[in-house]
């Protein structure tokens, strides 16, 4: 059992939240842990602290009633934590020492005594928000006491994190990044955190990350406090990006008018002055197509134009998250529109190396407003794709978000197709990006020869560019999918895939794809906590990555958190409405485990190739009593995998909850599998 008192206080058993926890159960635990070295307080003092707004008799009665409810609750769940006698209330930590019970605050206090970097990172992980963040004040002394404890814990952790990010030796770059992120999460105005992220990003060659971090810092301070970053932050930024003039740096943080270019004396910086040489060489070697997103306003004062400009910014940032495109920063794109003498797509290609332009603007027709978006091949000036979407400032926020996602998915999909067609048509020398496209085309097919061809294509990509993270992630994916398709019991190929993904992850800490592969492989290896941690990290980097959400749903199903798994797969399908078969297979597996077999079959029938999931289809039909259908799909499954045996399968399948495994095994036997 786990008791969490940081952030939203919860009690969980086997990963499931325990309902109806007594109101003062966690409050009393927090008070006993922090107020007394031996975790014991007299009944009189406890009653006075918690019910200071009543007289002594009523306070004692309220304490007795509260302890009675806690005792009944503990008996129900096999707990003996909060104990009491005629004089004292105290904590019995025997179950904690036996590792049958964990309390995040107790672990936190133990780690706080150590002071090494590993302990500090553990503190950061445990601190998910203020103590009892949703505590409802009861006009008692406890409320004031809790406020003081919250501030003390928060300030102590900030001091500890500051010590770590400023420590010259003994703390790695990645550890400093983790401490800095937590520092900003706790106090978003701590510029030391932003400076640390800028420094470590520069050390890793992630110059675009330096710029993003500085922009984030400047925007937060400007929006919330109406102040500029400290001089130390500005100077560090200029030092890390020495080719940016002070005027350009200021333009990133101060609202600027749009006078003619010659009036402010600031030259538009080319992408080469913003990106590190190493990153440029890597992009060139990989052959990544370069994209610029342009928004052409008719009237900058028009509220609809302003709203559209914000949406286009969101689209640009979404594209910037991808590692298979090189995207011109929004700042430069805006300056091209407002200040640059460039008046043709040819000029974009010559000065900025742009291969594709996304041309967007507001169009008004028949009293309605539309956002017009075109994807243009700059070399040929051919319109690759065009779309008009109804656009209105009264639309729900979620609708704008979906529009942004849909445009991003369309642009990426069409650029990849166009680039692959270009290579095949012109017989250009293959490079990393070409081979990556070849591999990506086949990696999600449930076809073993195609899967192995995809792996070879990814290996060819690495020959051209050894650290191309998308290709490394692709190789890891082919390995875990091959293991899954062959229903192997040995896990050598999974372990090999894990090593490939671990090689990819540190190369670009802001790319979620290696984390996705590590999450999936860890799930198949039965390392469930590691798996969910990888997916948590990946989702925090890119919460709109639909494929990652689908894999996260699969991991949650294997972990046994079925309702959360269903939420994740539904989110994935919302982000990617024309979903691949894999999404429906994952969703059907979750629904089958929830005994919602009709819905599971409905999911599987949406697959282009339902036969790939024949075992699950047979099991679902069998549980509905449809023997003929179950036999049909069982036969398909045995043709595709004639050596399948339930006993061997149960040894290799990685479901954390035994009852879930037993349920699936029973449904397979019901379908006629041996």
Descriptive report:
- The structure is a single chain.
- By secondary structure, the chain is α/β, with parallel strands linked by helices.
- The protein has 4 domains: 2-157, no CATH class; 188-242, no CATH class; 289-426, Rossmann fold (3-Layer(aba) Sandwich), CATH 3.40.50; 543-673, Serine Threonine Protein Phosphatase 5, Tetratricopeptide repeat.
- The chain is built from 33 helices and 12 strands.
- Strands 9-8-10-11-12 form a 5-stranded mixed beta sheet. It has a 4-stranded mixed beta sheet with strand order 3-2-1-7.
- α16 crosses α19 (397-426) and α20 (432-443) packs antiparallel against α21.
- It is globular and about 85 Å long.
- The two termini are 37 Å apart.
How do the strands and helices of this protein lay out in sequence?
Layout: E1 2-4, E2 10-13, E3 16-17, H1 25-35, E4 40-42, H2 43-50, H3 56-77, E5 82-84, E6 88-91, H4 94-97, E7 102-103, H5 104-112, H6 117-126, H7 141-165, H8 173-186, H9 191-203, H10 207-225, H11 231-240, H12 246-253, H13 261-264, H14 271-274, H15 277-286, E8 290-295, H16 303-320, E9 326-327, H17 330-338, H18 345-352, E10 356-365, E11 368-377, E12 382-390, H19 397-426, H20 432-443, H21 448-464, H22 469-486, H23 492-504, H24 513-524, H25 528-541, H26 546-559, H27 562-575, H28 581-593, H29 597-605, H30 614-623, H31 627-640, H32 646-652, H33 658-670
Parallel strand pairs: 1-7, 8-9, 8-10
Antiparallel strand pairs: 1-2, 2-3, 4-6, 5-6, 10-11, 11-12
Helix pairs in contact: 2-3, 5-6, 6-7, 6-8, 7-8, 8-9, 9-10, 9-11, 10-11, 16-19, 20-21, 20-22, 21-22, 22-23, 22-24, 23-24, 24-25, 24-26, 25-26, 26-27, 26-28, 27-28, 28-29, 29-30, 30-31, 30-33
InterPro entries: AfsR-DnrI-RedD_regulator, BTAD, TPR-like_helical_dom_sf, TPR_rpt, WH-like_DNA-bd_sf
TPR repeats: 512-545
GO molecular function, one term: DNA binding
């Amino acid at each position: 059992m786990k008791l969490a008192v940081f952030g939203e206080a919860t009690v969980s058993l086997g990963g499931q939240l325990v309902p109806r926890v007594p109101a003062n159960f966690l409050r009393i635990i927090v008070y006993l842990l922090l107020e007394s070295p031996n975790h014991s307080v007299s009944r009189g003092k406890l009653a006075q602290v918690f019910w200071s707004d009543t007289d002594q008799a009523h306070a004692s009665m309220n304490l007795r009633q509260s302890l009675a409810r806690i005792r009944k609750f503990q008996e129900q769940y096999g707990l003996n934590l909060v104990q009491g006698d005629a004089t004292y209330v105290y904590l019995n930590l025997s179950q904690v020492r036996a590792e049958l019970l964990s309390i995040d605050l107790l672990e936190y206090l133990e780690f706080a005594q150590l002071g090494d970097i590993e302990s500090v990172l553990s503190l950061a992980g445990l601190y998910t928000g203020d103590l009892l963040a949703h505590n409802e004040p009861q006009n008692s002394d406890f409320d004031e006491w809790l406020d003081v404890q919250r501030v003390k814990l928060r300030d102590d952790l900030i001091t500890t994190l500051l010590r770590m990010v400023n420590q010259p030796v003994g703390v790695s770059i990645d550890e400093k990044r983790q401490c800095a992120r937590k520092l900003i999460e706790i106090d978003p105005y701590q510029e030391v955190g932003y400076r640390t992220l800028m420094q470590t990003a520069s050390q890793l060659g992630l110059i675009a990350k330096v710029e993003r971090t500085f922009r984030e810092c400047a925007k937060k301070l400007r929006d919330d406090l109406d102040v500029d970053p400290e001089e130390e932050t500005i100077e560090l930024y200029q030092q890390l990006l020495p080719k940016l003039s002070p005027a350009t740096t200021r333009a990133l943080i101060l609202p600027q008018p749009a006078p003619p270019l010659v009036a402010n004396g600031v030259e538009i910086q080319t992408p080469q002055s913003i990106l590190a040489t190493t990153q440029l060489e890597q992009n060139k070697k990989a052959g990544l197509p370069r994209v610029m997103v342009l928004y052409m306003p008719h009237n900058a004062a028009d509220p609809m134009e302003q709203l559209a400009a914000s949406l286009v910014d969101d689209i640009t940032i979404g594209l910037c998250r991808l590692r298979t495109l090189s995207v011109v920063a929004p700042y430069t794109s805006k300056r091209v529109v407002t200040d640059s003498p460039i008046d043709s797509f040819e000029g974009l290609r010559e000065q900025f190396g742009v291969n594709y332009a996304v041309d967007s603007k507001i169009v008004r027709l028949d009293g309605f407003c539309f956002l017009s978006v075109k994807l243009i091949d700059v070399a040929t000036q051919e319109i690759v794709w065009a779309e008009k979407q109804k656009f209105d400032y009264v639309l729900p926020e979620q609708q704008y978000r979906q529009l942004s996602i849909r445009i991003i998915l369309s642009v990426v999909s069409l650029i990849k197709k166009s680039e692959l067609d270009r290579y095949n048509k012109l017989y250009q020398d293959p490079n990393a990006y070409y081979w990556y496209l070849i591999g990506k085309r086949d990696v999600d097919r449930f076809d073993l020869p195609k899967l192995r061809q995809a792996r070879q294509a990814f290996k060819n990509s690495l020959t051209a560019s050894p650290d191309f993270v998308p290709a490394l992630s692709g190789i890891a994916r082919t390995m875990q999918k091959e293991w899954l398709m062959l229903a192997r019991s040995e896990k050598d190929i999974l372990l090999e895939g894990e090593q490939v993904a671990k090689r990819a992850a540190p190369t670009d800490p802001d790319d979620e794809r290696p984390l996705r592969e590590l999450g999936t492989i860890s799930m198949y290896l039965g390392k469930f906590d590691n798996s969910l941690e990888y997916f948590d990290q990946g989702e925090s980097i890119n919460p709109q990555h639909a494929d990652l959400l689908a894999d996260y749903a699969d991991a949650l199903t294997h972990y046994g958190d079925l309702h959360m798994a269903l939420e994740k797969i539904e989110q994935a399908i919302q982000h990617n409405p024309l979903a691949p078969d894999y999404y429906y297979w994952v969703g059907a597996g979750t629904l089958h485990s929830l005994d919602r077999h009709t819905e599971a079959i409905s999911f599987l029938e949406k697959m282009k190739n339902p036969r790939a999931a024949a075992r699950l289809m047979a099991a679902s039909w069998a549980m509905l009593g449809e023997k003929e259908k179950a036999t049909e799909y069982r036969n398909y499954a045995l043709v595709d995998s004639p050596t399948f045996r339930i006993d061997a399968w149960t040894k290799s399948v990685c479901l954390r909850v035994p009852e879930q495994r037993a349920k699936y095994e029973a449904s397979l036997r019901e379908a006629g599998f041996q």
